[in-house]
Amino acid sequence: MHKMASGQLSRAEALACTNCRHACHVMLYCDTQNELFGQIPIKHIILMQMRFDGLLGFPGGFVNPSEESLEEGLSRELLEEIGAVVPISVENHVESCQSPASTSSTGLILHFYAKKMEEEQILELERSAASTAIDHGHEVLGMVRVPLYCTKEGGLSSFLSHSFIGTARQQLLDCLLRFGLISPQNLCQALSISVATHKRTTKDLKSALALMKGKQQ
Ligand code: AMP
Ligand code: MN
Questions:
Q1: The total number of structural domains that make up the chain
Q2: Which atom of ligand 1 is nearest to the CA of 81?
């Protein structure tokens, strides 16, 4: 099997692995003219979710290519997690790769999609995700928007310092650049602030743990 760069597979190569498990996730996004505090351009709304495991990730889940196409499976998952019909087609496919965490015997192939929508549609999805989605409060604790701006309080840098499922952070960064949603310079800057934020978080967690241990005695 010919592999593309860094574990990447074409959609067809990925589907050829019939004894692999397959999971599909999608980045749903739109442009917006809205501004934060009436002055900071929000530019794009990108939907992610707080998952049941406390990690940030993209909507989607396991699909069964022997019973449904990857895209049908992804739409089925979106109906459960967002509570609305979101048609996904092959044109929305971004990349497929072997999950870095999986071994060859328990192969998991991750398929990633992106779909640009109208702002009103994205707002509607946020409403249905919190009301009619059957996974709400179970597998999904809530949809969240990705802040793309940087203020002195944080923004994208703080968002990126949270914990993500699997390769979700990298999928987000790749798509931000691929679709021109942020400049490489701004992304670099946000990431470097993020590393510093993460160090402070580690320190906070260590002192919280020390405090708790003290209370146990
Ligand atoms: P889900 O049903 O959404 O949890 O996804 C199915 C599988 O894909 C789980 O085993 C997750 O660990 C994994 N997974 C979910 N999202 C991602 C992601 N963005 N990158 C890598 N693995 C993921
Ligand atoms: Mn899921």
A1: 1
A2: 3
**Cα–Cα distance, 87 to 61 (Å, whole number):** 15
78 occurs within a structural domain: yes
Q: Could you tell me the distance, in angstroms and rounded to a whole number, from the CA of residue 62 to the centre of ligand 2? A: 7
3-state secondary structure at position 145:
strand
Q: Which structural domain range is residue 77 located in?
A: 11-216
* CATH number assigned to the domain comprising residue 154: 3.90.79.10
Would you say residue 54 lies in a domain? yes
pLDDT tens-digit map of 145-162: 999 999 888 999 999 999
Tell me how far apart the alpha carbons of residues 171 and 173 are, in angstroms, rounded to a whole number. 6
Please name the residue whose Cα sits nearest to atom 17 of ligand 1. Answer: 166
Shortest-distance Cα residue to atom 19 of ligand 1? 168
User: pLDDT tens across 97-151, in order?
Assistant: 999 876 556 699 999 999 999 999 999 999 999 999 999 999 999 999 999 999 8
